[in-house]
From TrEMBL:
This is Uncharacterized protein.
Amino acid sequence: MGSDKRIDWDSLSVWYGNKIPQYLWNSWKGELKKKGYNWQKFLKLMKYRTDDTILWVSGSISWEDFMNRVVDSIEGDVGEIVLGKKRPKERRSKNPPAGGRE
């Protein structure tokens, strides 16, 4: 889109106006609310699916594959993390501290 390397134009284009998350929220909000989601939590979950959204918009994956990935996130670990039911795994340092113990 542009020549500015600091802007992720693909991400910006799929998030502009929140059209895709808004469409899904409007379609699923009854079920999502039963699971504990509100609009803000759903947006947070969809943030984790930005790469998949870009793949769908670019035609690299089908709508069905995109939907399966979103649903897997809602029902899986990502959803539990977003809802506060599970803590994200801590990253372990590749370089243990001096003395060989972490």
